[in-house]
Design brief:
There is one protein chain. With about 375 residues, the chain is mainly alpha-helical. Helices cover about 60% and strands about 10% of the residues. Among the domains are: about 15-70, no CATH class; about 195-365, Autophagy protein 6/Beclin 1 (Actin-binding Protein, T-fimbrin, domain 1). Strands 1-2-3 form a three-stranded antiparallel sheet. A three-stranded antiparallel sheet has the order 4-5-6.
């Protein structure tokens, strides 16, 4: 058998053997074998076991050292026990000394805490009421906010529609303003223009006076057809009729009948009326065409009456036309030119027709500046 601590061999005295010594030796062997196999046996626990202290096999030296260690631990436990008893006594004395002194303070503190509890409960109830009131106000504000947001959305839609309409109206106004400016410019341009001057374009083409491109006259080296001359007389008759209406005059002793290249001049003498054709035909005759000559003279007398009316409306004493007219003559630089073909050359008659047209052009320029009659 071996020692459970140092593993040295032990000799067992016969006096320690039981009657069935075999069982004791067997228990020693079992303990030794178990301790040797596990290596975790608590020697002190086995020694303190009151059931079978002899079951622990120890040598003398191990037994002595074990007893010394157990004594040392026992002394430490006794010292700790003394300290614990002292501390317990101190606590008991302090508790008994302060127990009666703290009763009044504890009661006062309890009363104060009770009052604070009541105050806090009252504040709690007040806060709960305020919370409920605030929650109610919040619900009302949420409802108002939702209503306000809906109204805001509606107003924004209305504003957006109005803004779109405003932009459209602004664009239309700008368009109308531009159109108005254009119309005003066009109106000013039209006011500055003479419709008579446009409708009856009188100009000089080489040796001829023309009206709307129609030559009024003829020369020996350049024959102008009577159809062109008659059409030019028709334009002159129409122009003089319009000028008479413009200046507000009723011709005396004469009446113009504009009918294109078949126009005529009527001579009014009392109840008798004679119509002279303002158109000719055939070649150039030395004695002229008496009917056409009377018509041209009547045309010149009508222009003389128009000039007199223009002088009256302008309060002018001197002639207002470019060339002076008298009887059947038009005077240029003191040189008279007869408007009749009878006993007249083609060149001088053509010059007289050119001066007649230039006087008509001047009469147009003066008449457009007059106010409406």
């Amino acid at each position: 058998m071996e020692c459970v601590m140092c593993q040295s061999r032990l000799d067992v005295h016969e006096s320690l053997m039981r009657e069935n010594g075999e069982s004791v030796l067997q228990s020693f062997k079992n303990v030794s074998n178990a301790d040797s196999q596990k290596g975790t046996c608590n020697v002190f626990s086995m020694l303190c076991n009151p059931d079978a202290p002899i079951d622990v096999s120890l040598c003398k030296d191990c037994t002595t050292s074990s007893l010394d260690e157990m004594k040392r631990q026992l002394a430490e436990v006794d010292a700790e026990l003394i300290n614990y008893d002292k501390a317990l006594q101190d606590l008991s004395l302090k508790s008994s000394a302060t127990q009666w002194n703290d009763v009044d303070a504890t009661a006062a503190q309890l009363q104060r805490l009770t009052m604070e509890e009541a105050t806090l409960l009252e504040e709690l109830r007040t806060l709960e009421e305020q919370e409920a009131k605030i929650k109610k106000e919040n619900r009302e504000l949420d409802l108002t906010l939702s209503t306000g947001e809906k109204e805001s959305d509606d107003l924004y839609r209305i504003f957006r529609n109005n803004h779109r309409m405003f932009l459209q109206c602004s664009e239309e106004c700008q368009s109308y303003q531009l159109r108005r400016n254009l119309m005003e410019e066009s109106l000013e341009m039209l006011k500055s223009m003479s419709t008579l001057d446009i409708a009856f374009c009188i100009s000089i083409h080489e040796n001829y006076g023309t009206i709307n491109g129609l030559r009024l006259g003829r020369l020996p080296h350049e024959i102008v057809e009577w159809t062109e001359i008659n059409a030019a007389f028709g334009q002159v008759a129409l122009l003089m009729q319009i000028l008479s209406e413009r200046v507000g005059i009723i011709f005396t002793d004469y009446e113009i009948v504009p009918r294109g290249n078949n126009s005529a001049i009527r001579r009014l003498s009392g109840t008798k009326t004679v119509e002279y054709p303002l158109h000719g035909s055939g070649g150039w005759k030395p004695f002229g065409q008496s009917q056409l000559d009377h018509a041209i003279v009547g045309l010149l007398q009508c222009l003389i009456q128009i000039e007199a009316k223009l002088r009256e409306r302008h309060n002018a004493v001197s002639p207002v036309l470019m060339y002076r007219m008298k009887g059947e003559q038009i005077i240029d630089n003191e040189s008279p030119y007869r408007v009749k073909m009878q006993f007249n050359s083609e060149e001088r008659w053509t010059k007289a027709m050119k001066l007649l047209l230039l006087n008509l052009k001047r009469a147009i320029a003066i008449s457009v500046k007059l106010p409406e009659h």
